[in-house]
Design brief:
Blueprint: E1 2-3, E2 10-11, H1 19-26, H2 31-60, H3 75-108, H4 112-121, H5 132-135, H6 140-158
Antiparallel strand pairs: 1-2
Length: 159
C-alpha cells in the first residue's frame, strides 16, 4: 500500500499474484522456455532448408535411377561443392542434435510435484543430469516424447 499524489487516498499497487501471471509478466523470451523456443525455431529452420534443397534438386530433374541432381559441372567444382555441402550438412545436424538434447533434458527433468511425491515414497530422481532412471518415474507422455525424440535423432547420429 502506498499514498499517491500527496493525498490521503491509499491505493494498492496491482502486481501479479499467481505464478501464471508472473510468467506472463516476465515475457515470452525468458528462462528455459525461451531457450526451447529458440531451439525449436532453429530445428524448424533446418527442416525448411532441407525441404528447399529437396525441392531445388527435384526441379533440376533426376538421373533416371531415382537420384536427384543438385549440380552438374567439372570435377574441381564438384569436389569444392561437395566439401561445402557436407560442412553445411554437419552444421545443420549439430543444430538439430543440440536442440534434441536440450528438449530431452527438459522433458526428462522432474517437476517439483514429482520430486515431492518421490520423496514421500522414499524414492529419488537424478537432478541436473540426463538420466534414463528419471524416465521411469516422470509422466508417461513426457517419457514417450523422450523416446520418440531419441529414436528420431538416431539416423542423424548414425549417418
Amino acid at each position: 500500500m502506498r499514498q499517491v499524489g500527496g493525498t490521503d487516498a491509499v491505493h494498492q499497487i496491482n502486481q501479479p499474484h499467481d505464478s501464471r501471471e508472473r510468467k506472463a509478466a516476465r515475457g515470452f523470451f525468458s528462462g528455459r522456455t525461451a531457450s526451447l523456443r529458440i531451439l525449436a525455431a532453429c530445428t524448424a529452420a533446418v527442416f525448411a532448408v532441407n525441404i528447399a534443397v529437396l525441392a531445388y534438386a527435384k526441379s533440376r530433374g533426376s538421373s533416371g535411377d531415382g537420384d536427384l541432381t543438385l549440380f552438374r559441372g567439372g570435377c574441381s567444382q564438384t569436389k569444392t561443392l561437395n566439401v561445402a555441402l557436407h560442412a553445411a550438412l554437419n552444421v545443420l545436424a549439430i543444430v538439430v542434435s543440440a536442440s534434441v538434447s536440450a528438449f530431452l533434458a527438459s522433458l526428462s527433468s522432474p517437476t517439483r510435484d514429482e520430486i515431492d511425491r518421490a520423496h514421500a515414497k522414499g524414492t529419488w530422481f537424478e537432478i541436473g543430469v540426463p538420466s534414463v532412471h528419471n524416465l521411469t518415474r516422470i509422466g508417461t507422455l513426457r517419457a514417450w516424447l523422450c523416446a520418440l525424440l531419441f529414436l528420431s535423432t538416431l539416423p542423424i547420429q548414425i549417418l
